[in-house]
Write a structure and sequence with these properties.
- Chain B: Keywords: Biotin.
- Chain B: InterPro entries: Biotin_Carboxyl_Carrier/Decarb (IPR050709), Biotin_lipoyl (IPR000089), Single_hybrid_motif (IPR011053).
- Chain B: This is Acetyl-CoA carboxylase biotin carboxyl carrier protein subunit.
- Chain B: It comes from OM182 bacterium MED-G28.
- The complex is a heterodimer of chains A (518) and B (71).
- Chain A has 518 residues and is of the alpha/beta class.
- Chain A folds into three domains: 229 residues, 2-enoyl-CoA Hydratase, Chain A, domain 1; 194 residues, 2-enoyl-CoA Hydratase, Chain A, domain 1; 37 residues, no CATH class.
- Helix content of chain A is 36%, strand content 20%.
- Chain A is built from 19 helices and 18 strands.
- In chain A, 46% of the residues are buried.
- With 71 residues, chain B is mostly beta strands.
- Chain B is built from no helices and eight strands.
- A four-stranded antiparallel β-sheet of chain B has the order 1-8-6-3, with no helix packed on it. In chain B, strands 5-4-2-7 form a four-stranded antiparallel β-sheet, with no helix packed on it.
- The N and C termini of chain B lie close together (6 Å).
- Classes of the chains: A alpha/beta (518), B mainly beta (71).
Chain lengths: 518, 71
């Protein structure tokens, strides 16, 4: 007598689990242009690297003879796997069963994802499509599930701990509502599929009932809404691009806070200069320039990965490499509201600095900051509070900073672009001071201008006089910057800095003084 | 057909194209003034300008339709 009957049943259960919600449900899912959770996992991971946790978790149904009749697998798929040879934890709801609303075993696996990631100190990727709990509970209307006991562990503790410990990247691949939507944004990087995803705190039916608002899923929570308001960092054309972006994000990240980000071999010469940088900044201060063009030129070729391009658009944040070393990149975009610090731009910048601080990534900052955004809308958005939050976050960081003064550096807001003991270099086009001369002169010298025979000429004269004082040369004379540099040599200077800070990085490892929150 | 929408509000400083005109990709179509900065908008494709939805001096808003170009 052996255990063959049982091992056969194990094999049978495993096979049944792979059938997910059944042929029809899968066909319907594919018909909507969507991949199943198992296809998503396979596409994300290196081929054959998935090691599943709890494939036999679920509900078994038996016939009259006590034989296994059918098996409903847990509707959350979870396991270990590898992305570009590096191990991660991956999980996601199975929409082909109960529309991704958790079954009892599905809920257990889903909650386990963060705990596993923290326990094994591995990056966590969650691929979301599903809704939260049903009013009938996980067991359905007829079920008699007990409410959780008072001494149950705090439900979201592990979600917060994961964010303080390991990189968390998430994707919205279909409709994501309720609890999965909350978990989607509890991440360091999130991306949504423009073709297939919506993100909803509550769906159209609940909204219609409670608010009397008749909206479609896309109107409520499609990509046009959520890539612009910062709910997700990035939009992607489709599911496949979402997974590619997650792979890209992970390539910059260490596996956890106790290790440094992986430095790769770099074939882009550190002394590569770029002639175009000599005239990229127009001498006319009213004329905008293309900051992304500078970023592409200075950092390792093709290495820049922008995060949050759709919101807080006056600020540009992303990851890149300098001679193979991953760094955080933060820059102003003068083409959007002059690059000023808006409320949403400040929020984006704060989260970004927290990401760098959590994972010990040095920050390279390209500064063209005219100051906090002003005007009635800016006041309504509490810009000064969000902006000051960014300023103080920068002041509390411990990672190395290099700040390149590209053009403007004004007011309180500019302080957010310089870290403590940062390395500061200035381009000849740099200007700095309490506020830009154009606005400042008209206010501070109001009477003098009004009293002049030709007020307009006097205003221009004063502006010229004062802008000379904002030039980087007197600043350099006073050791107010480490050096003035030729813009063409920016890459070389930054690569030297990266080499110099290498001995400082190991000491940064471990829990950050403050960690990132959504 | 490509519709160019405005990234931000501001005022229209210069309009450098008109309906019926042939434009090349990268050519500047119009320049907004936003927070005392000139912000040029370039043609994303080469083609014929079908419509320009504002005039110099107009106050404009974010997401407003600006120019339409046919390939």
């Amino acid at each position: 007598m052996n255990w063959k009957a049982e091992t056969d049943e194990i094999a049978q259960r495993r096979q049944l689990a792979l059938e997910q919600g059944g042929t029809d449900a899968i066909a319907k899912h594919h018909g909507k242009g969507k991949l199943t959770i198992r296809e998503r996992v396979d596409k994300l991971l290196d081929s054959g690297s998935f090691e599943e946790i709890g494939p036999t978790a679920g509900a078994a149904n038996y016939d009259e003879n006590g034989e296994l009749d059918s098996f409903d697998p847990a509707n959350f798929v979870l396991g270990f796997g590898q992305v570009e040879g590096r191990r991660i934890i991956v999980g996601g709801e199975d929409f082909t069963m109960r529309g991704g609303s958790p079954s009892p075993a599905g809920l257990r696996k889903s909650i386990y994802a963060e705990e596993l990631a923290v326990q094994y100190k591995l990056p966590l990727v969650r691929l979301h499509e599903g809704s939260g709990g049903s009013v009938g509970g996980t067991s359905g209307k007829g079920g008699a599930s007990l409410p959780g006991p008072v001494n149950a562990p705090a439900r979201f503790r592990s979600v917060a701990e994961a964010m303080a410990t390991v990189p968390v990247a998430t994707a919205a691949l279909g409709a994501v509502a309720g609890l999965p939507a909350g978990r989607l944004v509890a991440s360091h990087f999130s991306v949504m599929s423009k073709a297939t995803a919506q993100i909803l705190t509550a769906g159209p039916a609940v909204v219609a009932r409670a608010m009397g608002e008749q909206k479609t899923k896309d109107e409520l929570g499609g990509w046009k809404v959520h890539t612009k308001n910062g709910t997700v960092d990035n939009g992607a054309a489709d599911e496949t691009e979402c997974l590619t972006q997650i792979q890209r994000f992970l390539s910059f990240m260490p596996p956890n806070i106790e290790q440094l980000a992986p430095v790769i071999d770099c074939d882009d010469p550190v002394d590569r200069t770029d002639e175009a940088l000599l005239d990229i900044i127009p001498r006319d201060r009213r004329q905008a320039f293309d900051m992304r063009r500078i970023i592409r030129s200075v950092f390792d070729q093709e290495s820049f990965f922008e995060m949050g391009a759709g919101y807080g658009r006056s600020q540009i944040t992303g990851l890149a490499r300098l001679n193979g070393q991953p760094v955080g990149v933060w820059a102003n975009n003068c083409k959007f509201l002059a690059g000023s610090m808006t409320a949403d731009g400040a929020h984006k910048a704060r989260r970004f600095m927290e990401l760098c601080e959590t994972f010990s990534l040095p920050i390279a900052s390209l500064v063209d900051e005219p100051g906090f955004m002003i005007g009635s809308q800016a006041e309504r958005e509490a810009t000064i509070r969000h902006g000051t939050s960014a300023v103080l976050t920068a002041a509390m960081t411990t990672v190395p900073w290099a700040s390149i003064m590209i053009r403007r550096s004004f007011g309180v807001a500019q302080a957010a672009h310089y870290g403590p003991n940062g390395y500061v270099l200035a381009w000849p086009s740099a200007e700095s001071g309490p506020l830009p001369v154009e606005g400042g002169v008209a206010v501070a010298f109001q009477r003098e201008i009004a009293a002049a025979p030709d007020p307009e000429a006097r205003r221009r004269e004063l502006e010229e006089e004062l802008s000379a004082r904002q030039s980087p040369f007197p600043r350099a004379e006073a050791l107010g910057v480490h050096d003035l540099i030729d813009p063409r040599e920016t890459r070389t200077e930054l690569c030297r800095w990266v080499d110099r800070i290498q001995p400082l990085l190991p000491a940064l490892l471990g829990p950050a003084r403050f960690s990132i929150r959504p | 057909m490509i519709k160019i929408e405005l990234e931000t509000g501001g005022s229209v400083w210069k309009v450098l194209t008109k309906p019926g005109q042939r434009v090349e990709a990268g050519e500047i179509l119009f320049i907004l003034e936003v927070m005392k900065m000139e912000v040029p908008y370039e043609a994303p494709i080469s083609g014929e300008v079908l419509a320009v939805h504002f005039s110099e001096g107009d106050a404009v808003e974010e997401d407003q339709l600006a120019v339409e170009i046919a390939e």
